[in-house]
Amino acid sequence: MCKDKFRSKYKHQQHVALRRNMEKMSRVTTALGSNAISGRTMFCHLDAPANAISVCRDATQVVVAGRNIFKIYALEEEQFVEKLNLRVGRKPSLNFSCADVMWHQMEENLLATAATNGAVVTWNLGKPSRNKQDQLFTEHKRTVNKVCFHPTEVYMLLSGSQDGFMKCFDLRKKESVSTFSGQSESVRDVQFSMKDYFTFAASFENGNVQLWDIRRPDRYERMFTAHTGPVFCCDWHPDDRGWLATGGRDKMVKVWDMTTNRAKEIYCVQTIASVARVKWRPERKFHLATCSMMVDHNIYVWDIRRPFIPFATFEEHKDVTTGIVWRHQHDPHFLLSGSKDSTLYQHMFKDATRPVDKANPEGLCFGLLGDLAFAAKESLITSDANRKPFPGGDRRYPMFFFKKPDPTEQFAHVSSALSVFETDLDSHRMDWFVKTAQLYLLSGKPFAELCDHNAKVAQELKRPQVSTTWTMLRIMFSDPANLATPGPNHNLGKLGTLPLMNSFSLKDLGSGMGAESRLERSKGESRQDNIHLEPGNSYISNNEENEETEGSEGHPEYMFGDAELDDDDLYSMEHDNQTEEQEYTLPQEAFQLRHEIVDNPSAPEHLQQDKADSPHVSGNEAEVTCLTPIESFSLISISQPLFSPHLPASFFCPIVREMLSYYAEQGDVQMAVSVLIVLGDRIRKEIDDLTQEHWYMSYIDLLQRFELWNVSNEVIKLSTCSAITCLNQTSTTLHINCSNCKRPMSNKGWICDRCHQCASVCAVCHHVVKGLFVWCQGCSHGGHLEHMMNWLKSSAHCPAGCGHLCEYT
Asked: Where do the WD repeats start and stop (predicted)?
């Protein structure tokens, strides 16, 4: 008897399980059967751009809503067929201008729309009249962004508005039954939980997500910061009751486990644009679909276990996709979408593009210290090319993972091998990069001082080529008129701008500088003159002490010709005789026309009187003696130059451009960006914007990898590329609440406009915080940084006694 009873009970359990499976399969085949008949991707043109779409319970009709469109289409085998236009009347009111639409999943004749004028409208398709409007709620003060029906309650409707409030409506009444204040900025999305009857989630523009119990409208159950910018959408997993997916402006989709005490991020998908909509894929636990709010027009289906490349892509739309919905809650093969390009699409999953098929199967990456990692198919780099694969699949995976996989619904299982090539730390250390970034000066001082400082830094780090480059840049682009201010007896007004060359004074002109020391051009002979020059302190700098040489009172400087001496061959001038001499001035023309050439012309009279004396510069004229390196020295005194001796900065730009490209190609993008910033407008126009942006982004990426945040911020601030400067202008706003009344604070100060209390009171010592203030984004309480750190070391609860579990990170 016992055995028979046990068998009958076991058979009954089997029968119940089989019946449940059959019910589930019948629900699936209901959708699959109708869709199998249509069997293709199709679309139709709309009268206006769509803002949102929704599907009825049996997946046979879809409603499209927008500012200028509100229609219902039937999903037939080969096409969309318009069934009903809900915009009736000669002059439709703003109630027909929809920001969102929702079709009830239990009552097939019930629709709800969120109007741009702040109204929440319900529509009864069973009405015999042309106007199907049923109820009108006008309690919101600003645009309503989202409406959502309860999944099991017919008459419960939830709305979220730009005014920061959420309202719950009972459709049997004419006003809301509950109002939920997020105590924050506008509400972007609200979603009832699929498994928890009383729970709904709300996302906000300040990056927070709140969980509410509809029985407690006074305070949320939980709040956490999900994204660094506005959270535009959220969606509960249809099967796993604890999973919540969120998408935001930070281009990320995050999956949160809400079953723990704290919201735990378990998956994160990085997209290429801000996420406007996210929808879990039916019957596929790890798949979800997303679309963007701007820039990107495609629809992506992601496998959250592989977040770096989309599982499938739909590329049919030509403008931003505004609404996506799976055709049936148990059918993973058909996706509907509406767009601003005024089209409505039905996408078949088998027609989707698979990005992984076009992806590069090899990976290459440099480590922070120069290590190289290379990943490729195991068959390409294994030494045993004839090795037979394990019959059950890769040994690293469990056997059940390879049990008859569906190739169309999974990524290809490719076994890869990773090779890491390490570098010699002594020869490839990156200490120089960090020290250079920290010690370089890019602004705040004159150009010459910046070059000298950076050259000194490079020299101390044993990088002579870089040091020499900085020195050459100073020589090329410095303005010599600003290098040395003329002394009281110098008058450079007639000379204009002097080139940056080596300056000299004659200490002794020997007897050879008389008639015999002059250049004999007719003979072509080269004779050495005994000119005794002693090194001194005549290096050109910005210091006033070096404007004149020691022992001189207003004596002239002598310039050698181009390429005569190096920077190291610097000499000073000394005088043995300070006696006032008679001036000798050349005529205005340096060489008289058609004069007779004399083999040995006599020297100027005052030079013959005292060969040891240097020529004198009066207070009215500046006389320059040029020593030319042609066979011998010839002393010429002129009052005005016949040409401009200073080369313009544009003369050196091609050379500097090639130099910057050389450093960038060699991998030293730090030098390229640093020179680009220091030179500024002198060189910026010579290099195209895309190249500059590439250099900046590469250098900033390196700085951030080495955690040099301050240097990275300085480079971004000093950049003139719009694409770089905007990096410091995104997600920089902090929205804070008053710790007393929990209302958002204004930007006017630290006194709350509502309760007129100081918001910056330390929760530990109860004094006003005048320095660094740290606060919890969950409960808005905070205080002195040191006090809060010490408190949270021993307790996880808020020191204000609100019961919130604060966390210091």
From this structure: 137-179, 224-266
Alpha carbon distance 234, 268 (integer Å): 14
Sheet order of strands, 558-560 included: 503-504, 558-560, 624-627, 637-638
Cα–Cα distance for residue pair 161/141, rounded to 1 Å: 8
Query: Which of 137, 148, 143, 213 lies closest to 180, judged by CA?
Result: 213
Largest CA distance in the chain: 147
CA-nearest of 573, 577, 572, 585 to 613 is: 577
Contacting residues for 566 by C-beta, under 8 A, at least 6 apart? none
pLDDT at site 13 = 52
Tell which residue, 66, 169, 54, has the closest CA to residue 115.
66
Q: CA 173 to CA 165: how far, in whole Å?
A: 19
List beta partners, residue 124: 110
Distance CA 437, CA 702 (A): 10
> What angle do helix axes 669-679 and 653-665 make, rounded to 10 degrees?
150
Report the b/e string of 61-97 with b at 16+ CB within 10 A: bbbbbbbbbbbbbebeeeebeeeeebbeeeeeeebbb
Residue type, 200: F
Q: Please give the helix or strand (H or E) that residue 661 lies within, else none.
A: helix 653-665
pLDDT of residue 296: 87
Q: What is the pLDDT of residues 126-164, one digit of tens each?
A: 888 888 889 899 999 889 999 999 998 888 999 999 988
Contacts of residue 75, Cβ cutoff 8 Å, sequence gap at least 6: 34, 38, 59, 60, 61, 62, 327, 346
pLDDT at 681: 87
Going by the DSSP 8-state scheme, the letter that residue 229 receives in this structure is S
Predicted pLDDT of residue 646: 66
574-599: string of b/e by CB count within 10 Å (b at 16+)?
A: bbeeeeebeeeeeeeeeeeeeeeeee
Residues 6+ apart with CB under 8 A from 70: 63, 64, 85, 86, 87, 96, 98, 101, 113
CB atoms within 10 A of CB 258: 22
Inter-CA distances, 414 with 243, 246, 283, 375, 379, Å? 29, 30, 25, 12, 10
Distance (Å, rounded) from C-alpha 292 to C-alpha 275? 5
* CA triple 335-339-340, angle to 5 deg: 180
Q: Are 441 and 454 in contact (CB under 8 A)?
A: yes
Predicted TM-score of the model (pTM): 0.55
Alpha carbon of residue 68 to chain centroid: 36
The pLDDT, as a whole number, for residue 504 is 38
Paired residues of 277 in beta bridges: 291
Residue 174 tokens read as 């004419």
Residue ranges for the chain with pLDDT beneath 70: 1-39, 380-408, 412-414, 425-429, 479-646, 730-736, 739, 742, 745-750, 759, 809
How far is residue 246's CA from residue 275's CA, in Å, rounded to a whole number?
9
Token readout for 389 is 């694969």
388 φ/ψ angles, rounded to the nearest 5 degrees: -85, 135
Structure tokens at 600: 């040995």
Name the nearest CA neighbour of 559 among 540, 585, 531: 540
Give every CB contact of residue 491 below 8 A, 6+ residues apart in sequence. Answer: 617, 619, 620, 621, 622
Written as six digits, the tokens of 343 are: 């089209």
Residues 6+ apart with CB under 8 A from 681: none
Spatial distance between the Cα atoms of 124 and 97, rounded to a whole number of angstroms: 17
First to last CA, the chain: 65
Q: How far apart are CA 733 and CA 30, in angstroms?
A: 50
Residues 6+ apart with CB under 8 A from 258: 211, 222, 242, 243, 244
Closest CA to 619 of 486, 497, 496, 482: 486
